[in-house]
Amino acid sequence: MSSTNKNIDIEISVVSPVYGRELDLAGLCSKLVSTFEKIGVTYEIILVNDGSPDNALDVIKELGKKIAI
Questions:
Q1: What's the predicted TM-score (pTM) here?
Q2: Is residue 6 part of a domain?
């Protein structure tokens, strides 16, 4: 997820591996977005699907439809 305007300087980048974390991704992203918007910074969230055997990739795709990933 990231601020959607590509011309804005990113102030905070979060990179997170998602191996085996299918059930935690929505909560993680929600908390990060809420916090970054509350403090008023531009941000990007990079979720790294590192061969997770669960449905993490599907969750990432669904999250990407709701928030820019």
A1: 0.79
A2: no
